[in-house]
Amino acid sequence: MSTSPILEVRHASKTYSGTCVLSDVCFQLHAGEVHALVGENGAGKSTLIKIIAGVVTPDDGIQIFFDGNEVQKLTPRKSIELGISVIYQEISLFPNLSVAENICKGMYQDAVVDFRKMRKTAQEALDLMGIQMDLRQRLSDISLGKRQLVAIARAITFHSRVIVMDEPTAALSSSEVQMLYQIIEKLRSQGVGIIYISHKLDEVFRVADRISVLRDGLLVACDQASAFDEQKLVSLMVGRELRFLPMHSQHIEPDTVLFESRGFTCEPWFRDISFSVRAGEIVGLTGLVGAGRSEWAQTVFGMNKAQAGDVLIHGQSVTPRSASEAIERGICYLPEDRRAQGLFQGNPMYKNISVVALQKVLKNGLLNRSLEISATSDYIDKISIRPNDPTINVENLSGGNQQKALIARWLYADPKVLIVDEPTSGVDVGAKLEIHRLLRQLASQGVCVILISSDLPEVIALSDRILVMRRGSLVAEVQAAEATQEAILAKGLMG
């Protein structure tokens, strides 16, 4: 690692409408270093990397140096020209273009594109990463995990000297995560500096040379990764000690089956899915990416049409034909892809929350905005969404706070059955614990909760029972109190 930093930020501050979101932060990155940036949602991480990317204009007083030279008025174009690439948590690629076109977009300025040359360049980037992908396939037709890898390949193609990875494993399978670790090692050996942002602390300790901790817009710690352990890091991030303990229910009603999936089938994604959930129970549904978990949830929610089987509530068939019908039946679904399937972009937070139960905010048959804002504010307070402003555009929230806004939506809907798909993806440790407690609180009130998650410690800690899917079928059921990560993973791999 070089002694002088490739990138240095001094005295970075940013204020929005009188609210300080970043205060006098200094940050350095060396060539060949992986510098992890951690903190709760709203701590200032996104603002700092957007300043580095030239997307956000900082307050006066900042200094930015690249290779020891001060950079004036950093813009997105200037940032790219310097060799800075940012891979955002919400992937900003072109879904209607091919894999090769996304990797090389902006590289060739000729009026006539040489597609053979483009595919050769893209293939070289994928070969360097050690992955195989159909270069002609349209981006919208591949998984979120593969799109993340395409974004990394794009950064490699542009010979970036600094790469910012914001929650890079959020949509990756376990094998793709291992592949990412290998890619990071290759980039490090080539002298690329990497800023790594993740709420998964095991990943942080796996890849980071140094760690910087932000809390409430302030830099509260920066040291070698070896100077921290997980509990110390969590305490620095949230300003208090947190403990994750199993939360199995003590009050499940033994004979009260609230929800049932009976012979539910939607080929080619899943077939003959049959299980029941009792009132007050949390059932974990896990398995490898591609096992059919999300597709099953979307079909239960009326987004896809089932080919066979039924959904029952209290023994009565209620198989929804649409999402609105599912909500009427008391079935709510928190999707894995919050931007594409959850949020109403361009709308304030209060509208995103109230949309599922507008009858609660009618006055004389008309929507009452002040009542709508007041009603949703209670839920914003309940799960600590920051900033605490129901009128803020949901696009201006951090990824974790967007997720919490969607959870507030379904709390507002008074669900009978709540299906949550990767509910803590991109959420900080403090918010993760809050979400766990909210789900357990809902269960204690008689709601049946179905937790879809690839985070096995989360599934084991929160669930009462665990169901394992493999290639579209249920292959195992275990009691969470008796489960181990190794046993669940083995069942998901081998059935």
Major sheet strand order: 6-7-8-3-9-10
SS-based structural class? alpha/beta
Query: What does the main sheet amount to?
Result: 6 strands, mixed
The helix count comes to 17
Q: How would you describe the overall organization of this protein?
A:
The protein has two domains: 7-238, P-loop containing nucleotide triphosphate hydrolases (Rossmann fold, 3-Layer(aba) Sandwich), CATH 3.40.50; 257-494, Rossmann fold (3-Layer(aba) Sandwich). It contains 17 helices and 22 strands. The chain has helices spanning 45-52, 76-82, 99-104, 115-129, 144-157, 174-189, 201-207, 230-238, 293-300, 323-329, 338-341, 349-354, 369-382, 399-412, 429-444, 456-462, 485-494, and strands at 7-16, 19-29, 34-38, 63-66, 69-71, 84-87, 162-166, 193-197, 210-215, 218-224, 257-266, 270-278, 282-287, 308-313, 316-317, 331-334, 362-363, 366-367, 417-421, 448-452, 465-470, 473-479. A six-stranded mixed β-sheet has the order 6-7-8-3-9-10, sandwiched between helices. A six-stranded mixed β-sheet has the order 16-19-20-13-21-22, sandwiched between helices. A four-stranded antiparallel β-sheet has the order 2-1-4-5, covered by helices on one side. Helix 4 crosses helix 5 and helix 13 (369-382) packs across helix 14 (399-412). The longest helix has 16 residues, at 174-189.
